[in-house]
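Hi V.,

You were right to ask for the full record rather than a summary. Here it is.
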Amino acid sequence: MKKTFKLSHPKLKLPRLVEAIKYEIKKYIRRERRKKLPAGVDFWDFDCRFGVDEATSEVIHLSTINRHISEAEAKQLDSFYLEILVKPGYRTKKPKGMLDIEDED
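Predicted structure:
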């Protein structure tokens, strides 16, 4: 998903529009996570970018998308750019030294 969202609408008020945008993004992520995993892949991972436009967008974590949208609303931006690309994710094991530290607590 590569999309520029407008934060103005002739009939909808801004808070309702922002909630609709957040819902559309959650729906897209749920739809992508339901797709069948290829062999050897543990989960679907996402590369995300957020910014005022595509040229100035920065890499963000998936879990911070709602916070960035709320900040765009607070800054009263006219629009923002959001890019969410799906990629295969692979689980990694923790280093052996990290397991010992956690067990001591």
